[in-house]
Structure formats: C-alpha cells, structure tokens
C-alpha cells in the first residue's frame, strides 16, 4: 500500500493493494507530491510557526499556513469583529483556490475549539462566509467545547455560547467533543496517567479518521458528507450529535482482546465511550448513525442494532 512521507511523497509499503484514496483530501502535483487540501489559521503566529518549522513543514503549501500578528486574547468579539476581519479575506481567497482544484467539491470539515477567541470568534465569521459563498456545500464542524473542570480562561462559557449561536444557522452538523470527557478517556480507558495535548489530539484524530473512512475506503454501505446530515439531523437547527467510539483501550490490552460486534455496538451507548461528559440514559436518541470499520458483515450489524432496539 501507499504511505505518505513527511514531505508529501509516496512510499510503497508491502504489497497490500487496499484502496486508500488520498485524492479525497490531497491534491497531487506534477512531480507526484501529495499536498493536503487544508488550511491552518491562527490570529497569532506561535502555533502556526511550530508547523512551519516542524517535521511536517514540507508537506503543506506555505500559503495554507495563515497567521496574524496578535491573538484574540480569549475574546470572541476580537476574534470576530476586529483582529479576525484582518485575515478573513486572505483565508477565503485561499479557500477559493483550493476549492477550484477539486473535481467534485462535497463540502468542508472545520476543526476548532470554542474556548478561545480565535476558535470561537474567527470561526463564527468564517462559517458565515462559507454559508454565503458555498451555500449548497455541506459544512461539518468538529467542535471542542470547554469544560468546568478543564478550563484555562474564565470567559470560555461566553465564547462557547456565542459560537454555538452562530453555528446553529451556518453549520450543517456539529460533532461535539469536550475536554473533560477526552481527559477521562485517556485516564480511564487508554491508561495515560497525565495526558498531554498530543494524547488528546490523537484521540480526536482517530475519531475524525473513522468518521471520514467511508470517503477513503471501499465498503458495503459507504456514506458521503451529505448523508451525515441526512441521517443525524432530525430538524435543521438541531444538528449537534454526540460522538462515541469503541473499542477504547490501551495498546497493551488491544493485543490480547477481541470484541464481538454486539459488544462494540453496546459500548457506543455507554457514557464512558462518549466524547462529551453526559449521561445518555437521561434523554432519548432522536437519530443515530453507526459507522463500522474493518471486517464487519452487515448481517452482524443488523443483529446488534436489533438487540439495542429491543432493550
């Protein structure tokens, strides 16, 4: 199979011919290099500079790494109305260039936190622009919500509420994640005593990878971006689904355990496997979209889902 190096070139590994179509998220240049169709934005340069100077610096097009000169100071209004307005045209211009390189643009995946000024204020401004410029395209949002137990700024709840108000009208589906739930999963399920940002980000990345797997791999019942909205959104403004993932276990346990489809399906409805700190038993499920990855037979899935419904 093909794997990408840090510079974006392809490296053959073994003789596995499993289809992993990089063209879904990458553009291939004339010399065979794969360039991600992604843009990184921050209103202050520190974090983006880490990417510019890090081991993956040759993977990204320099114009896809956009940073301002000062941060939003955890202030939604600065991110949206003042500092953010200085870079929004540059971001949308670069987005247009990338969109024009696509053969069949389905939509956008947006990743941000809601606690800071950039992730809240600037993202609100951006999704409104996307809603205007690409009204027919799907916009899926992966939003990291703040938590009372894991907080870095006293104004995080305000930023989160203001951003949520904006995404109600301008995003098609917002997959919710919160810091407290991610920390607890790392501690209790993955065996990481003191989780670092690397651990948290890898867990979120695994969730996103599994969510988008059907866009990159062949399968018996694949879904595209538009089908997420169709399957998960009962009413247009109620589009904030919980995300659950199973199995969640440490690397040491993974080599010694095997799970049946019924066990995995049941685990997705346990609060310990959900990316938001809540008890699902306190409410009702209005819609559900279950994605299975690996050697899974539809017959086993139907049996597992039927068992869940009968409870």
Automatic annotation (TrEMBL):
Ranges where the Tubulin/FtsZ 2-layer sandwich domain occurs: 221-311
SMART domains, per database record: Tubulin, Tubulin_C
Principal subcellular localization: cytoplasm
Assigned GO CC terms: microtubule
GO MF term (any one): structural constituent of cytoskeleton
TM regions (residue ranges): none
Compartment list: Cytoplasm, Cytoskeleton
A GO BP entry: microtubule-based process
Top-level division of the source organism's lineage: Eukaryota
Domain Tubulin/FtsZ GTPase: 22-219
Cofactor(s) demanded: Mg(2+)
Key words, A-Z: Cytoplasm, Cytoskeleton, GTP-binding, Hydrolase, Magnesium, Metal-binding, Microtubule, Nucleotide-binding
Pfam families named in the record: Tubulin (PF00091), Tubulin_C (PF03953)
Catalytic activity reported: GTP + H2O = GDP + phosphate + H(+)
UniProt cross-references to InterPro entries, sorted A to Z: Alpha_tubulin (IPR002452), Tub_FtsZ_C (IPR008280), Tubulin (IPR000217), Tubulin/FtsZ-like_C (IPR037103), Tubulin/FtsZ_2-layer-sand-dom (IPR018316), Tubulin/FtsZ_GTPase_sf (IPR036525), Tubulin_CS (IPR017975), Tubulin_FtsZ_GTPase (IPR003008)
Entry similarity comment: Belongs to the tubulin family.
Quaternary structure and partners: Dimer of alpha and beta chains. A typical microtubule is a hollow water-filled tube with an outer diameter of 25 nm and an inner diameter of 15 nM. Alpha-beta heterodimers associate head-to-tail to form protofilaments running lengthwise along the microtubule wall with the beta-tubulin subunit facing the microtubule plus end conferring a structural polarity. Microtubules usually have 13 protofilaments but different protofilament numbers can be found in some organisms and specialized cells.
Role, per record: Tubulin is the major constituent of microtubules, a cylinder consisting of laterally associated linear protofilaments composed of alpha- and beta-tubulin heterodimers. Microtubules grow by the addition of GTP-tubulin dimers to the microtubule end, where a stabilizing cap forms. Below the cap, tubulin dimers are in GDP-bound state, owing to GTPase activity of alpha-tubulin.
Protein name (Swiss-Prot/TrEMBL): Tubulin alpha chain
Species for this entry: Drosophila affinis (Fruit fly)
